[in-house]
């Protein structure tokens, strides 16, 4: 049974969902890790990216590339709307506003009033055909014991490819003069301001960039699942992304990638183990599927607490980069 | 972490181990869905009885879905409580409030209540405004009670406690445990729950936050820790009590009383009256007692308070105990007028944030005022707009107030910069 669980865990850890979460975490790294912005509504950007694709293709019959562009444009608009009132205030105001905005978006997509456009609580499907039509991989099962289908392999390659592209982009940006200003804002906003830098302007650029990366993550998520539903975009998704970022190492280029791999390996391994034990009758009777989910999420909460208390720099982080405080 | 936290977690787990088997979900069940005009009708109470003896109650969720687990195969009477139907929604056949449903071994049977058109009668608009104003006040009072703790904790320690909503659910479920599982009366269960909730909140401060403050952990790190804690509380509740909505055992099937244009159940009047009394008591405590003055002093200027001889850590502990007690009461009141479920506190948290920021972060009176306004805005919005988006208006108020007056109605300007 051990090997089965190991392969279950590995399949999820390198899968397209993990890649989507890695993109969310790359975006959060831009916000939280480098700039010190507390974005608790990354799932809102993800929702915009996912629904940008789904609405453009499924509701209006547009092409997929246009859908991705719509999602990105939506993320830019959302970042501007969120940033203008809150970026001049303390970091925790942004936190509350972003989590509220993400919930507003979820409520609006799921109401019956917006059903003609968003599909309401049922969501939308049949928008990812264009993506799978481009698949150059011949049909079959790949990667030996993981038995990954050619369609899944294609989304994995594109998903992790995008993770690589944005990781490289951030890596380069953070070594540029722009990146140094961004980091100086995190360290001491007033110092940056007294050097004549327009702090608000730079924070806004960071919010937009990280949000766009989150929206791309949403698009990958939607295309890989081939369906979108409003209630997959719960606030806890943002906190998963935070756990991934902190686990891997905040303000490091590799952190989101390592974090996503380990996080999903552990979560999927745990769920697979609990489920198999439960099916084999080795757990108490009340340990149903709901209890498996609840146990895993309790574990995520404990992980987040313990990491933040005992190892805030994560696996690869530098402790000096993680001395954030509300100013 | 300190032994206290470990102990309280252990207690939670032990309590849960006793409870969980009571909610095993295989076996007989009656379910149904209530819809009017294609929309689910939430918060309607349905009672299932066997030979006149009630065996369970269900409350419909946001989609109008409800279910009741049964003790065994039999023919049950399923009764819909028409007083819990929202304004203007009626049974298509008003005489069919009770259905007889036969349930076989291990089966799930469906009970269908057909709901008719929303009938608009009389000078509807004014009546609906009056009714929704009262509902808004009721809801706002509950938000306010829970938000005082959130605001005072922020004021005294700078921490935005993301676990505060889940402290509300925890309180509601402690009462639920004593009431529905152990069979105590709700009033007794509530009194026990308030004490337990306050003690757990104090233990959380001593066990987690006090050591973190001593280690000078940054506020953002503490905020992330509070999110982790919220996750733990929320999903421990989910683990032991399941994800469905459950009502308390007492005061559930009450007939509404007409008061001019509005209709209220006695339990709702009690909840509102007690909320007002408790809020006044808290306000008096804050202005008249030494401890209350200490709380306001620390919230106003921590360093000044410390140098004038106030034991800041003791004040902070009292704020947590007070906040935990108030959160528990709020949770129980919310459970009494609606139902309890593991996400109730998290839903409330965003409204608490809206109330606290509207009133002014860190102030107790601001939290009360802001929360009342948030309650009013969300309930009054349903007069003109769909009730599915009523929280959106409350959250929109939050964003607008940040644009126009970020320090809130009663806040001081230097807090925000």
Polypeptide structure, described:
- The complex is a heterodimer of chains A (327) and B (417).
- Chain A has helices at 2-13, 16-35, 42-59, 64-86, 91-110, 115-118, 129-133, 150-174, 177-187, 189-194, 199-225, 236-248, 255-279, 289-310; strands at 124-125, 141-142, 148-149, 227-228.
- Chain A is mainly alpha-helical and 327 residues long.
- In chain A, the strands form two sheets. A two-stranded antiparallel ribbon of chain A has the order 1-4.
- In chain A, α2 crosses α13, α3 packs antiparallel against α4 (64-86) and α12 crosses α13 (255-279).
- Chain A is globular.
- Chain B has two domains: 26-110, Immunoglobulins (Immunoglobulin-like, Sandwich), CATH 2.60.40.10; 124-415, Orthogonal Bundle (ABC transporter involved in vitamin B12 uptake, BtuC), CATH 1.10.3470.
- Chain B is built from twelve helices and eleven strands.
- Chain B has helices at residues 3-19, 124-157, 164-181, 186-214, 219-241, 266-288, 290-300, 302-307, 312-337, 344-359, 364-384, 390-404, and strands at 29-33, 35-36, 39-40, 45-50, 53-59, 65-69, 74-80, 98-103, 108-110, 257-259, 262-264.
- In chain B, strands 5-4-7-8 form a four-stranded antiparallel beta sheet, with no helix packed on it.
- In chain B, β2 (35-36) and β3 form a beta hairpin.
- In chain B, α2 runs parallel beside α6 (266-288), α2 crosses α10 and α6 (266-288) crosses α7.
- Chain B is globular and about 70 Å long.
- Chains A and B meet through α4, α5, α12 and α14 of A and α5, α10 and α12 of B.
């Amino acid at each position: 049974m051990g090997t089965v669980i190991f392969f279950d865990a590995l399949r999820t850890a390198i899968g397209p969902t993990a890649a989507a979460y890695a993109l969310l975490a790359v975006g959060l790294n831009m916000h939280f890790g480098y700039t010190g912005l507390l974005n608790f509504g990354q799932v809102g950007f993800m929702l915009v990216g996912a629904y940008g694709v789904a609405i453009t293709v499924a509701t209006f019959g547009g092409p997929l590339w246009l859908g991705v562009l719509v999602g990105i444009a939506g993320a830019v608009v959302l970042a501007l709307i969120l940033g203008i009132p809150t970026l001049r205030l303390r970091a925790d105001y942004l936190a509350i506003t972003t989590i509220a905005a993400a919930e507003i978006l979820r409520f609006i997509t799921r109401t019956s009033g917006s059903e003609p456009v968003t599909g309401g609580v049922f969501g939308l499907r049949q928008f990812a055909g264009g993506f799978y039509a481009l698949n150059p991989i011949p049909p079959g099962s790949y990667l030996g014991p993981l038995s990954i289908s050619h369609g899944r392999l294609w989304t994995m390659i594109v998903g992790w490819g995008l993770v690589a592209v944005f990781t490289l982009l951030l890596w380069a940006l953070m070594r540029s003069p722009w990146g140094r200003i961004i980091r100086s804002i995190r360290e001491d906003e007033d110092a940056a301001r007294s050097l004549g830098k327009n702090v608000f302007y730079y924070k806004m650029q960071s919010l937009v960039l990280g949000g766009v990366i989150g929206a791309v993550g949403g698009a990958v998520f939607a295309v890989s699942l081939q369906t979108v539903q409003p209630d997959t975009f719960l606030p806890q998704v943002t906190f998963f992304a935070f756990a991934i970022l902190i686990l891997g190492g905040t303000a490091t280029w590799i952190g989101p990638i390592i974090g996503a791999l380990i996080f999903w390996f552990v979560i999927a391994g745990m769920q697979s183990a609990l489920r198999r034990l439960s099916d084999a009758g080795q757990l108490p009777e009340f340990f149903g599927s709901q209890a498996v989910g609840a146990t895993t999420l309790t574990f995520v909460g404990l992980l987040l607490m313990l990491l933040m208390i005992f190892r805030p720099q994560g696996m690869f982080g530098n402790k000096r980069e993680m001395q954030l405080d509300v100013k | 972490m300190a032994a206290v936290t470990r102990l309280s977690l252990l207690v939670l787990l032990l309590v849960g181990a006793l409870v969980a088997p009571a909610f095993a979900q295989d076996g007989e069940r009656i379910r149904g869905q209530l819809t009017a005009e294609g929309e689910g009708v939430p918060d309607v109470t349905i009672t299932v009885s066997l030979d006149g003896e009630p065996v369970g109650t269900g409350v419909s969720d946001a989609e109008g879905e409800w279910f009741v687990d049964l003790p065994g195969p039999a023919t049950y009477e399923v009764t819909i409580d028409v007083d819990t139907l929202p304004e203007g929604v009626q049974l298509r056949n008003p005489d069919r409030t009770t259905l007889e449903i036969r349930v076989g071994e291990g089966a799930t049977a469906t009970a269908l209540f057909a709901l008719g058109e929303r009938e608009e009668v009389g000078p509807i608009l004014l009546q609906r405004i009056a009714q929704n104003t009262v509902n808004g006040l009721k809801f706002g009072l509950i938000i306010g009670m829970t938000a005082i703790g959130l605001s005072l904790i922020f004021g005294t320690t700078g921490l935005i406690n993301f676990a505060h909503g889940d402290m509300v659910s925890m309180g509601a479920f402690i009462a639920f445990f004593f009431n529905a599982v152990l069979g105590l009366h709700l009033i007794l269960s509530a009194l026990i729950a308030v004490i337990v909730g306050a003690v757990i909140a104090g233990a959380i401060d001593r066990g987690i936050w006090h050591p973190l403050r001593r280690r000078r952990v940054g506020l953002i790190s503490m905020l992330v820790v509070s999110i982790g804690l919220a996750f733990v509380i929320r999903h421990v509740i989910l683990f032991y009590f399941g994800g469905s909505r459950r009502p308390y055992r007492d005061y559930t099937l009450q007939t509404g009383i007409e008061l001019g244009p509005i209709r209220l159940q006695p339990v709702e009047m009690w909840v509102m009256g007690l909320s007002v009394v408790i809020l006044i008591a808290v306000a008096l405590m804050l202005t008249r007692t030494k401890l209350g003055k200490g709380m306001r002093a620390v919230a106003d200027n921590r360093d000044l308070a410390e140098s004038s001889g106030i034991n800041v850590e003791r004040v902070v502990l009292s704020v947590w105990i007070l906040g935990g007690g108030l959160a528990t009461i709020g949770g129980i009141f919310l459970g009494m007028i609606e139902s309890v479920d593991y996400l109730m506190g998290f839903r409330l948290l965003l409204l608490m944030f809206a109330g606290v920021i509207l009133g002014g972060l860190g102030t107790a009176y601001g939290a009360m005022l802001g929360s009342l306004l948030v309650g009013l805005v969300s309930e009054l919005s349903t007069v003109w707009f769909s009730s599915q988006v009523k929280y959106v208006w409350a959250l929109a108020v939050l964003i607008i107030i940040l644009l126009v007056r970020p320090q809130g109605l009663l806040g001081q300007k230097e807090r925000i910069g």
